[in-house]
Amino acid sequence: MRGTLTTVENPTHSRFMRAALREAAKGCGATSPNPAVGAVLVCHGRILARGWHRRAGLPHAEVEALRSLPDPALARGATLYVTLEPCSTTGRTPPCTDAILRAGIRRVVVGATDPHPAHAGRGLELLRRHGVEVLTGVLEQECAHLNRAFFKWITTRRPWVVAKAALSLDGRLTRPPGEGQWLTGAAALRDAHRLRALSDAVLIGAGTLRADNPSLLIRNVPLPEGKPQPWRVVLTRGGGELPAAAQLFTDAQSSRTLVFASQSLEGVLEELGEKYSVTQLLVEGGGEVLGAFFDGGYVDEVCFYIAPLLCGGPKVGVAGLGVASTAEAPSLTRVEYRRLGRDLRLSGLVLPAVPTGT
């Protein structure tokens, strides 16, 4: 008997898929270059088991859920909710579809399908051929959004680029000379370190390295279990010597510092994605670096921390060439505002600019 493949949305499926999404979120920042995936096993309207992918090389969410059952026989005839299509190929771990079929699961409800062109839909079709009912598209946008960095990397081999800056109300990056480098308060600083913890690499320009001598390490928040400190990436275009005594070159993580000299941003992104499997890149550079990324159309997401200060001065948050008209300026969607102490966190996904006349 063949199963069915159906796209469906109803409140019951949405409720259990949200539970699977909560499981998946536990792996955010820890699973790269794999996606963060969650699963719940349901029978008669009750969740029997939960699972999430913890780290690349460890069992996937579906297998974690099955292993957490007190009795494996409980899976027979149950429904599995999973945020991403189960894998059907052997990588670091065996195919999840094999485990699902052995367990005797009757129905699989999927959020998003595998974005890899060579794999998309294969797991679903395999399950269907073996008599499993397959439902797809449940909270698909939410499931895809959770893994937006992985989706881009797996299809383009380039990282998802997040532009981050701490700004005054008038769009400046620093306080007046001699007053320290932090514009925002402790809550915003902790949140920025959480953002680093979600990323595989942090990028700055040579100017920031010389002026601030940053460590670019994750501090004040836990590093996900098994996750190394992010790669520290320095861009230099002027050909000047970089300070050999800088923390990036002398601390215990110096082996995770990369320098790109006089290389195009496109080339940098390609190498980070291909050679270093960077799925999410956090750009923390100064205004010139951020401006170059925006000018090139390389920014996918923005996260700006805005302090209630008016600093003035020449160091603007985003420099570069700018746009010819407001109509051509990139805009944000999925905009979120969050108060962090006295500061404001503004984030959103970048919509590409539409040239005038298009």
Gist?
The chain is α/β, with parallel strands linked by helices and 358 residues long. 27% of the residues lie in helices and 24% in strands.
Word description of this protein:
The chain has eleven helices and 14 strands. The longest helix has 15 residues, at 11-25. It has helices at residues 11-25, 61-67, 96-103, 122-129, 140-146, 148-156, 186-197, 206-212, 247-250, 265-276, 287-295, and strands at residues 5-7, 38-43, 46-52, 79-84, 107-112, 133-136, 160-168, 201-205, 231-236, 257-261, 280-283, 301-307, 331-340, 343-351. The protein is α/β, with parallel strands linked by helices. It is elongated, with a radius of gyration of 23 Å. The chain starts with a strand and ends in a 7-residue tail after the last strand. Strands 10-9-8-11-7-12-14-13 form an eight-stranded mixed beta sheet, sandwiched between helices.
List strands and helices in order, with pairings:
Layout: E1 5-7, H1 11-25, E2 38-43, E3 46-52, H2 61-67, E4 79-84, H3 96-103, E5 107-112, H4 122-129, E6 133-136, H5 140-146, H6 148-156, E7 160-168, H7 186-197, E8 201-205, H8 206-212, E9 231-236, H9 247-250, E10 257-261, H10 265-276, E11 280-283, H11 287-295, E12 301-307, E13 331-340, E14 343-351
Parallel strand pairs: 1-6, 4-5, 5-6, 7-11, 7-12, 8-9, 8-11, 9-10
Antiparallel strand pairs: 2-3, 2-4, 12-14, 13-14
